[in-house]
Amino acid sequence: MVVTREAMLEPWEQPAFWRRLTIWDALWTLLAAVGAIYAGWFYRAEMDGYEIAILFGGALALIVWGLYWKPARLFTLAVALLALLALWRYGTDYESRKSVFLLKYFLESQAAFMWMSALYVLATVVYFAALFSRSEFVGQTATALTWSATVLGMTGLLTRWRESYLLGADIGHIPVSNLYEVFILFALITALLYLFYEDRHRTRAMGGFALLAISGAVAFLLWYTFDREAHHIQPLIPALQSYWMKIHVPANFIGYGAFALAAMLGVAYLLRQRAETRHPDGLLAVVLPPLELLDDVMYKAIALGFAAFTIATILGALWAAEAWGGYWSWDPKETWALIVWLNYAAWLHLRLTKGWRGAPMAWWAVIGLFVTLFAFLGVNMFLSGLHSYGTL
Amino acid sequence: MSDTITARKPSQRRTLGWVLLEFLGSMNLAITLLVVVAIASIIGTVLQQNQPYPDYALKFGPFWFEAFDRLGLYDVYGAVWFIAILGFLVLSTSVCLYRQVPGMAREMVRFRTQVRLESLRGFHQRAEWWLPERAPPGVLAEVTGAFRARGYRWRIQDHGDHQVAAAMKGRYQRLGYLFTHAAVVVIGIGGLLDGNLWLKLKEWRGEIVVETRDLAARDVPPVSRLVPGAIPSFRGNIMLPEGSAASFVFLRLRDGFLVQELPFAIELKDFQVEYHATGQPKSFVSQVRIHDREHLGDQPLDATIRVNHPLIYRDYAIYQSDFGDGGSKLELRLWPLTGGRLEPVDIKGEVGGALKVAGPAGPLGLELTEFRLFNLLPEPGARPGDRKFRNFGPSVGFKARDAAGEAREYLNYMAPVQLEGRWFFVSGVRARSGAEFVYLHIPVDANNSPERFLRFNARLRDEEGLRALLARAPIPTENPDFQRDLNQVRLNLVELFIQGGFAAVTERARAVVPPDRLQEATKLYLEILRDTLAEVFIEVLRAEGVNLEQGVGEREDAFFNDALSALATLPVYGSLFYLQLTGFQQVEASGLQVTHSGAVGVVYAGFAFLIIGVFLLFYTSHRRLWAWIAAEEGGSRLVLAGAGNRRQAEFAREFAVLEASLARRLGASEPRADN
Questions:
Q1: Domain count along chain A
Q2: Average confidence (pLDDT) over B439-448
Q3: What is the CA radius of gyration of chain A?
């Protein structure tokens, strides 16, 4: 065969990492770095060394995230612009949320969460519509809805962070301090994890299932807001006044989000398998995501969740050593975290060393969610202990 | 590719040691132990741990209390069997490591150049070329060039009729296994060393005995005391009143405690609690001074301890963990509620102390249990969602124990509380701890005191005085006999009312009046009662010197109604006296936790291993590539194959890129038979 001159000249060497970066990558890095430096300088009086370290660590993580997954950049930019807009419209008066149109109906944290809730539920329906209609356009709409919901939810969280400071300098804190706030975080992280896998695997077939978990969280959130009025910003109890909260809680929720996603994919797996054996020519057996894909993403989600959960539990232990006098007290929350950890460790062992696949692992992922849910909610509801911050 | 290396010569002799090792290192044992640990842990979270033993006895009854105690369920995580299982897990994981590490090490360094063509052709990722115009050395150079470009290391072996270039990348993935499993062992050992293993050992050897009596620290015998350094790790607590110092902490163990002595003394200079406007505590701050002649000389160390900001002194960490009363000095006034004379007694006491007072039915023991300066409670009548709080001011909690040893618990607020626009002294009582309080609302008189109500109450219990009063203010009637009967009825009604409230009056009516006239008679009874009570009340007002020429004013009228409600509550309140808090001098106490952790560094090293291990394990992949090259009909045959032990999809992509870049150099590969 004829070898072209170009092919002959093609270098074997893959270009170095930095050579593969485009001008956009550089801009992204620069923007994130400048943003972090500006924020650090602007709020330097409010932060101690640990918090500055967390700020720059967070900025670094954001940069890497954006380099690794391009859509993260647009997401970050949109959230940043909306949040800055909200901050600007707020000024220094918490009561602006009732008078300024843009805040009252759109960007004030409560309004943003309502938009988020509505859009997530809508996205769930549209994802399923896309699944059954097999229309590309409907699928794109679902993705757009999910992105919009996530942008608004994240904006709402950032705005809420600011709002807590507007209520009083000694009340202000990152909004991951109670059950209400972490449920929003849970929805956002689960959505982002799902969107990542949707993008990487180029399929929207899993969307309805992932969004179903998020819609469940939204339903809880709405009940919690309207029945229990849990949405009010509360000051922090002394035990939570620590920089550790900024890293321990988000790390935990990456774990919870990933486990929830894995469980929903487990449900999809079991449905598809059932459809394939019972009605191989039926609609379900065709439109549901293929088994290999589900199996693969389920494993990836659990591996990611396990890694994040490991880090979160270790961070929790380090925090406990500073707040409670020991890195491990066999407090119910700690003990259940250990049970969750052991559960997924066993799942991964059996998959990686014994090669288990298929329905048993899917069932296990679904049951694992209930174990996780108990550690997350049940412990607060039924058991007492040091860690009972979020009661119903 | 499997992670486990199971190759073992079948001829190997099965010695006892080998069987034991096989058993200990087996995944089945590990999983069984993990399940047991998980179940035991769940028991420990469902059954509240380390509660006072009498609580358990009450909850489970004598048989199950004893059974659960034998099983160690009240301190699952310190039970011998639980520690033993954890020990077994550590051992099992160590054996697993011991058996797997040599194989893993071989996997990391060996290139596996001994590979057969058929097995390469069985790989999922493979490509094959027949290159008529190329000699094997040139092809080999192209292939190794491609390997180098992708960062692979390789070895070439000449097998005579063919050559094999075996390459690999990401071999450190194998360390993930080592790090994660070593982390379990390291954290397990560290945790066991930091647990109460040493205490158990000393107890088992009879060197220490848990003290179960209620003794002051200085009275605890040496056999229940631990000198500094006696055990490498402990977590102890001490409640320090302001202005006091201690050089020991209490270690709670099962139903008793030990005294752990410290090589320094902690003095509490000051303790402060701040509150948010919503009623939640904002901060707990202890100002302490460390006295340590040996290390600090005459210069004591001043420090501030807050939640989340412990003081690390030498190898000891001192935490803010609790707060309470350090013996506040209280001034109290004891008003009798029974009997016809109102003679209050002023007494003084200290929180934590006990007083003896003379009660109408023998001496009463008063145990002052708590004093609170602030009581931020939800606004009465507010919905749970409203989150409105009000400061109800100082309160005293105490127990009154009668001669029979029966105790009632009280909670009395010092300042009057405004409810529905009127002011009351509020006192709660309950017959046993944990029950709901029954509240008595005493209306406040013009002197901001409960005295008027109490005087009114006393008048109603003074039968002689009551008789005289009724004689002076009769209900007008013609018949003197009827007059006498009527006065007796009035006395009986008052008696019924103070014994059992309005309910007792209607009860009596039901008992003596035929049903057809019941409604009418009850109404009449209540009217007579009310008139009589009003008569007594006016007498009380008159004695107080209230000007009644304009009649009873609106305020007095409201007072009268509230007084009737309070009187009606008294039978349920069931107390012999009302204790009024009249003055206090607060002494706060800070609960400090002192820990010494000998193995914290070991555990933290384990944490680092775990994180490194998990990421190596899941996010790197040990990949191998093989190129099998042989001369064939004047040209060459190249078989390229590869496998990775993680991230299969990524490896498939990487292999496809490699194949494509080789194809650009060598020409397209042969189509695969299977796809």
A1: 1
A2: 90
A3: 22
Chain A residue whose CA is closest to B658? A12
Please tell me the distance from the alpha carbon of residue A272 to that of residue A288, in angstroms, as a whole number: 6
Chain A residue closest to B196 (CA)? A329
b/e per residue A37-64 (b: at least 16 CB within 10 A): eebeeeeeeeeeeeebebbeebbeebbe
Indicate if the pLDDT at residue B674 is higher than 50: yes
In Å, what is the CA distance from B329 to each residue of B286, B349, B610? 21, 6, 54
Residue with more model confidence, A16 or B215? B215
Give the ranges where B72-221 is alpha helix by DSSP (H): 80-109, 117-121, 136-149, 173-194, 197-204
CA distance A121 to A110: 17
- CA angle centred on B416, ends B414 and B418, rounded to 5°: 145
Within-domain flag for A237: yes
Pick the residue from chain B with its C-alpha nearest to A354: B2
Same domain (yes/no): B101, B139 = no
- The per-residue pLDDT for B675 is 44
Letter for the amino acid at A187? A
The secondary structure element, H or E, covering residue A271 is: helix A244-278
Looking at B109, B130, B154, the residue that finishes a domain is B109
Amino acid making up residue A230: A
Residue A114 structural domain? 99-382
What is the distance between the alpha carbons of residues A30 and A51, in angstroms, rounded to a whole number?
Answer: 21
Shared domain for B643 and B659, answered yes or no, is yes
Cβ pair B307:A335 closer than 8 A: no
Query: What is the greatest pairwise CA distance in chain A?
Result: 76
Tell me, yes or no, whether B350 lies in a domain.
no
SS3 track for A353-368? CCCCCCHHHHHHHHHH
Q: How far is CA B75 from CA A325, B50, B430, in A?
A: 19, 6, 31
The answer to whether residues B622 and B646 touch, using CB atoms and an 8 Å cutoff, is yes
Polymer length in residues for chain B: 675
Same domain, B260 and B210: yes
ipTM of the complex: 0.90
- Total of domains in chain B: 4
In a domain, B38, yes or no: yes
Quote the domain boundaries for residue B513: 456-576
Helices (H), B280-340: 293-296
* pLDDT tens-digit readout, B149-164: 888 999 998 888 888 9
- Asked whether residue A308 is domain-assigned, the answer is yes
Query: Same domain, yes or no, for B549 and B533?
Result: yes
Residue A77 is assigned to a structural domain of this protein: no
Which tokens sit at B488?
């007796």
| Residue B464 counted as domain residue | yes
Q: Please name the member of B386, B611, B665 whose beta carbon is closest to the beta carbon of A314.
A: B611
Establish if A28 belongs to a structural domain. no
What CA–CA distance (Å, rounded) separates B84 from B68? 18
Which of B70, B88, B109 is at the close of a domain? Answer: B109
Q: Which token pair is B586? A: 């607060």
Best mutation target, A314, A333, A351, A392, to test chain B (most B CBs within 10 A)? A314
Q: Is the dihedral of CA B200, B204, B209, B210 positive or negative?
A: positive
Quote the pLDDT of residue B161: 87
Q: How far off is chain B from A101, nearest CA to CA, in Å?
A: 26
- Residues B155 and B211 occupy one common structural domain: no
The alpha carbon of residue B322 is apart from the nearest alpha carbon of chain A, in Å, by 11
Residue B180 lies in a domain: no
- Provide the terminal-to-terminal Cα distance of chain B, rounded to the nearest Å: 22
pLDDT at res. B385: 54
User: B564 with B640, same domain?
Assistant: no
Query: Do B105 and B120 belong to one domain?
Result: no
pLDDT in tens, A322-351: 888 788 888 888 889 999 999 999 899 888
String of DSSP letters for B191-239 = HHHHTTHHHHHHHHTTS---B-S---GGGS-GGGEE-TTSSS-EEEEEE
